[in-house]
Amino acid sequence: MKDDHPSIIGRFQAGFRNSPRGFIFFSLLPTLILVLAFTYYPFLRGIVMAFQNYQLFDLTNVRFIGLDNFKNIFNDPKFKHAAVNSAYWVFISLILQFTIGLTVALMLSKRFRGRGIFQGFVFYSWALSGFLIGLIWKWMFNSQIGVINDLLLRTGIIQERIGFLSDPNWAMTSVIIANVWYGIAFFAIMLLAALQSVPSELYEAGSMDGASGARKLFNITMPYIMPTVITTTLLRAIWIFNDPSIIYGLTNGGPAGSTHILSSLMLDKIMYGGDYGAASAIGIVMIGILLLYTIFYLSVTRSAKMGDF
Amino acid sequence: MKRHLMKGSKVVFLALYLIFMVFPLYWIVITSLKPQKEIFSFPLKYWPSELTFENYINIIKISKFHVYIANSLLISLSAALIVCCIAVLSAYVLARYKFRSHRQVMLGFFLTQMLPGFVALAPLYLLMSRLDLINTRYSLILMYTVGLIPFSTILLKGFFERIPSSLEEAAMIDGCSRLSALIRVIMPVMMNGIAATFIFAFVQNWNELFMAVLFIDNESLKTLPVAMNSFVMKFDVDWGAMSAGTVLSVIPTIALFAIAQRFIVEGLTQGAVKG
């Protein structure tokens, strides 16, 4: 009886069991719907906005204006300044985060007592938000009662207080220091994991051939962890480029726009200016830069070496 | 001799690095425990003359800090939970089956991690107002869930790939359906991975600022980051209260990360290391 007339649910379950197609489809469905509707749709909508006059405070006047938004931002000295800052911000932050992160990883790759606790104390910056890190450093960089000025004065390195955040000559350096502090942990953690996967036989063979420590580093270790190095630097550069939260918390682009990068300038146009068209235009320029960068980076480092992270 | 020198420089470097990393946290904690007058008096005190909780009491008095904490908890927990349920399914399918659009789906996930997400921020605001979700907790639960699905899927996929598929095949021969094999046999084995994903998602949600600022301005619905953001604008000079607020905001995430760090790193580095 039961076998002759299987219930609808039973038939559904049987179908599920026999064809992975149905299972695949229904398992991916919620993911695909949500990501398409709330990530890709708004994203594409944002791209269209770049070609529209779209002001939050003038929504009756939304219309296509061709490339006017792009002309406006390219004529804006703030935009050019932010573009130069972005390059500076990504390049310096990345180099410092990577070299310090790699050094830390190399030093931690051999087991020693207390290593686990040490890692807990130095890697926690990962768990903090960029905004709060910005606030913490804002307090430390304070030109009147900031602890960094106090330490530098006490040790006699400087004679007068420095306006780390109020002096345009210093502000960019200050935000980069905070960003480096934030990002070392990422590289140290990733590279440490890669280092620990290097087979010890390779080192033993190297020792037998009489290779020195430095030669082992460049001839054995580095080639072996190269895929991780390429993937992490590529991804990290993109994240640093895209993330305005430290700058938002620390200077909010100030003084006088001198620490804006492209992403913080775009955020500023959305949150305070309500100029969605101009913000989107900046976003499109950013996408273009990211595309060029990724293609360039992968062709220089030869994508074949990249891990499938 | 050379060996000693190497070891010595290593110890010095690691010690300096430790100080560099720990000092900012130390300083914000110490500031939050100083009596008001000592925060702004010279010379700066590196250890307060007395430890006091007056800044913490103060911040709860001048703002609804307990409400913000409750909102942050509710939103972060719900979104992290939903993300895990949805991402487990998609990660499992992507780990176990090669189907026609497999590559495209993975590429679609990776792209969301690389594109500048703020391009979508303004349209999202308009979309949320059209759905009548502005000034509701649902807007944030929804958007945090969506935002974390791709990354959580990639993370969980790595964990699934380490579990031999013979495990659920055996269960299916014994008459389990695919879904119940996944729930009854596979999930218990990868509790570490799921916990790591959950904690990662929670921390991200807990920290998110910009969508929350844009979608919420009702005092009783604010999350911690939104509250801190309005604090900066209102009490820019009250560093006693600000540091107390910062410390309260970072304690849960630091604690969680300390617990889950090992698993998250395992999951993250899987693909990258394998090359």
From TrEMBL, chain A:
The keyword Membrane applies. The chain crosses the membrane at residues 21-43, 87-109, 121-141, 170-196, 217-241, 276-300. Keywords: Cell membrane, Membrane, Transmembrane, Transmembrane helix, Transport. It is found in: Cell membrane. Residues 83-297 form the ABC transmembrane type-1 domain. GO terms for cellular component: plasma membrane. GO terms for biological process: transmembrane transport. It holds the Pfam family BPD_transp_1. It comes from the Bacteria. It is a multi-pass membrane protein. Its main location: membrane. Belongs to the binding-protein-dependent transport system permease family. This is Carbohydrate ABC transporter membrane protein 1 (CUT1 family). It comes from Cohnella lupini. The lineage of its organism: Bacteria, Bacillati, Bacillota, Bacilli, Bacillales.
UniProtKB/TrEMBL annotation, chain B:
It is found in: Cell membrane. It is a multi-pass membrane protein. GO terms for cellular component: plasma membrane. Keywords: Cell membrane, Membrane, Sugar transport, Transmembrane, Transmembrane helix, Transport. It comes from the Bacteria. Its main location: membrane. Gene3D superfamilies: MetI-like (1.10.3720.10). Belongs to the binding-protein-dependent transport system permease family. This is Multiple sugar transport system permease protein. Pfam families: BPD_transp_1 (PF00528). The keyword Kinase does not apply. The chain crosses the membrane at residues 12-30, 73-95, 107-128, 140-160, 181-203, 239-260. One of its GO terms (biological process) is transmembrane transport. The keyword Membrane applies. Residues 69-260 form the ABC transmembrane type-1 domain. InterPro entries: BP-dep_ABC_trans_perm (IPR050901), MetI-like (IPR000515), MetI-like_sf (IPR035906).
